[in-house]
Amino acid sequence: MEKTTQKATQKIIEFIRGNPKITRNELAEKIGITPNGIKYNLDKLKKEGKIRRIGPAKGGYWQVIKPGE
Question: Which structural domain, as residue segments, surrounds residue 36?
Fold first, then answer.
């Protein structure tokens, strides 16, 4: 499970870099895990200080804080 989560978080970061306005549903579709799985991984990345949400839930965007991960 840890490896899957690590792979998913890396993919999430890559997709956010490519499209900071990407939605959870779009991430779920591209990565092949549920929107709840995406939420879990996004929360984990936020806790680790790797990404942050700028603006409101609707109309905001993601920012990758730690490059190269």
Answer: 2-61
46 is a domain residue: yes
Query: Mind giving me the DSSP string for 11-51?
Result: HHHHHHHH-TT--HHHHHHHHTS-HHHHHHHHHHHHHTTSE
- Global pTM? 0.85
1-31: pLDDT as tens digits: 556 778 999 999 999 999 999 999 999 999 9
Indicate which CATH number applies to the domain containing 39: 1.10.10.10
With CA atoms as reference, report the closest residue to 12 among 51, 49, 57, 67: 51
Contact 64, 29 (CB under 8 A): no
Q: How many domains does the chain have?
A: 1
User: Does residue 68 have a pLDDT over 60?
Assistant: no
